[in-house]
Amino acid sequence: MRSLLLIFLLLGCQMALGAAVVTEYRLDNGLKLVVKEDHRAPVVISQVWYKVGASYEHDGITGVSHVLEHMMFKGTDAHPPGEFSRIISENGGSENAFTSKDYTAYFQRLEKSRLAVSFELEADRMRNLHLQDKEFQKEINVVMEERRLRTEDKPTALTYEQFLAAAFVSSPMRIPTIGWMNDLENMELSDLQAWYQRWYAPNNAIVVVVGDVEPEAVLELAKKYFGPLQPEEIVPPKPRLEPRQQGKRYVNVRAPAEVPYTVMGYKVPVLRTAKEDWEPYALEVLANILDGGDSARLTRDLVRGSQIASSAGAGYDLYDRQAGLFLLDGTPAGEHTIAELQQALFEQVLRLQETLVDADELARVKSQVVASDVYEQDSSFYQAMKVGQLEAVDLDWKLADAYVDRINAVTAEQVRAVAKKYLLEEQLTIAELDPLSMEAGRTPRSGSTGGDDEH
Amino acid sequence: MNTRPAGMLPGFICRLLLCLSVVPAAHAMPDIQHWVTDNGVRVYFVPAPELPMIDVNVTFAAGSVRDDGQPGLALMTNTLLDMGAAGLTADEIATRIESLGAELSTSSLREMATVSLRSLSDKSHLAPALGILADVISRPNLDKEDFERERERRLVAIRRSEQSPSTVADYRFFQSVYAEHPYAHRVSGTEESVKALKLDAVKAFYKRYYVARNAVVSIVGDLDRKAAGALVEQITGALPEGERAAALPPVPLLKQAEEDRTLHPSTQTHVLMGAPGMHRGDPDYFPLYVGNHILGGGGLVSRLYEEVREQRGLSYSVNSYFSPMEQDGPYLLSLQTRNDQVDEALAVMRKTLRDFVDKGPTEDELVAAKKNITGGFPLRIASNSGIISHLNMIGFYDLPLDYLDTFNDKVTAVTQQQIKDAFQRRVSPQTMVTIIVGGEEQVSSGIAEPD
Fold this sequence. Notes:
The complex is a heterodimer. Chain A is an alpha+beta fold. In chain A, 40% of the residues lie in helices and 20% in strands. Chain A is built from 15 helices and 13 strands. In chain A, the strands form two sheets. In chain A, strands 1, 2, 3, 4, 5, 6, 7 and 8 form an eight-stranded mixed sheet that branches. A five-stranded mixed sheet of chain A has the order 9-13-10-12-11. The longest helix of chain A is centred in the first third of the chain and has 20 residues, at 133-152. The model of chain A is unreliable at 1-18 and 443-455 (pLDDT under 50). Chain B is α+β, with helices and mostly antiparallel strands. Chain B is 41% helix and 19% strand. Chain B is built from 15 helices and 14 strands. Chain B has a six-stranded mixed sheet, sandwiched between helices. Chain B has a five-stranded mixed sheet with strand order 10-14-11-13-12, sandwiched between helices. A two-stranded antiparallel sheet of chain B has the order 5-6. In chain B, helix 9 (285-297) crosses helix 12. The longest helix of chain B has 18 residues, at 144-161. At the A-B interface, helix 1, helix 2, strand 6, strand 7 and helix 4 of A face strand 1, helix 2, strand 8, helix 4 and helix 10 of B. Strand 6 (94-100) of chain A pairs antiparallel with strand 1 of chain B, so a sheet runs across the interface.
């Protein structure tokens, strides 16, 4: 019989996330449990997060985290392939799973009294997955179809994949979550077995429950189902920090397409790596000054103003596990060229470095953040996502609570400071999609085998 | 707020494409309040005091079915609404809305053209946001310069859509299934039809269809009935009464099977198979809905998923669905597979469909499907966004106000025999359209099936 260690937070054991109460526990096998009460409806969201994803992988086995996610539906000794999904379905539930560079997560959404159904099945497959070659041979084909659907046949996705692989030389940020096709073609069941053994354990997992539940009752259920599971010795991945970029990089992607596209990124820190912890929040504000809606600069100035862009965007993820990129992308309008669009984007960067953003713009971004914080509470799934995404990269879920205040504290000077410090040409990677004629391309392509897939 | 660049991969990938549908929360079925304003707007309202926010959705019967020989006209009109109104420019509208933290959006489909607003519910935020919504609906500028710019953007979007084998397949599917019917042409229009659009036609379209009697307003949020009444008056009071759009013509049945192959420079071939299916309020709605859930609608558990993906690993995404509309919307089965496997995958899909139509579901399948649908239904209408999408559907298609209350009972009442009977009358595998878009020139297997 295992006892449980209650984690006490700063002001007792409960804190508010948004309007609701959050309670946090850790079982003595290391499993972390976060329960958020949302009593609006008799519904519960249950998510199990594992600290593993593409950024934990290395060359030769890229995509293994995601393939394993697929195989997690292929049975244990207690439940043959397909039974997991049948049981959830018959309980009125819906379910799915997702893999990113930093985590792999599984979820169900159920009527509140059915939470035990989820816990029993998830606990079983956390340690007792029965990886079978027969199932693997079929599922690896499904994953290759998924890669064709998401990447091979989408010229912008193909461009983005090549872009990331060029922007990062050593950091695993370069690895596509779906995996390179050739690695998928050569993946073996033993790769999956080793990966499962290494990462799927209670001390590498976070269970997040959001809904019309009582935290103590959820804890009792977690004890019952997850409590008996044995922990594993978890060896964290090596740091694999990216060496400093020494100059601008340029990638040209030729693929059958109708319209050109460009994406560019500057190396920037994230919350986990920033020496000054306000900087990631200033970069968030910067992203929203450029692309926080139809009144933001890229749409206002480039789409409606100069009409150089048909569409343009900016993006930044402050919660990544490793240092990442500040992204800009777009498609030129009408007769305008990719070069003109890139020049217009550079001018936007220059303006941010030279001139303080207007007080009105800053106020607009802050109003949006405050309002979004309310709107997000309409989705209990999203609430659970916020907790899981942070905990999965060893950030405290309470940072989500602090987000509005941190954004509100950002000044125009700080926005200019991060623009000057990080949006540097020598830290830039630019990719452009150079469309090949769709007509000329109407011949079969060979995928990645043999390295002869260039046209 | 969107901080992810357009066209970029999402940060994670799902086991199924549909994994991020909105998730919900509401105890009993929502209590729908309905009234009609003096000028003829139909209103549907559900109070939701839990969160300090309000969703408003204004939908007009002004989708592409009203294009009348000018494909793309309905969408262009809808797009221009928030590109300037009551003398404000697009920049000014966007700045005012976003400074309030509100979200204003437009969308236009085959039947519905919508303007939606999400706002905080306190008066200092809500009142100015509603003022802008009123202007956008009732006093759009429909300015020449905005029109020319948005037309250019539309042309780029149309060209970009031609890159996607799934979009190309979708275009061809609707064209083949609906031929001369207003459902046939693409919502965006074609390069030729969009180039030919005239601003005068946009103005005439707006004047005809953006009128009170052609509008449905849905509201969910932190306000009471009296405030909802005032809200509707504020946003639609200035609309002329006008007239409701005419009923759409019925959809003719397909007379014979048709197979259409298009070469595309892709590594996968996309297959769409189907025919006209059913309409909103259809007497066969429940048997067809529950039956399809078993055949290909049930997420990770369905016959098509089992046969095509789980047993053979042929496709990542495989499913089937009815898309009920005012008239018979499509019944559609779809998959994508490596180019050289398309004939095998298509044969499996056809055999699975034919078996189901011939024999119907098993008792076990029916029991399991009912448990999933009835157990999952409350979850679909638990969030404000889940409720408002159902309100909009109920209002637009004149469905009964007890639609949500009776939904589970009607699902529970469906029998094996009803499903078999409805599928045999309404789904004919022998007269379906099959659209195949992919990267390799191959000889058709015709409609032959495996033995």
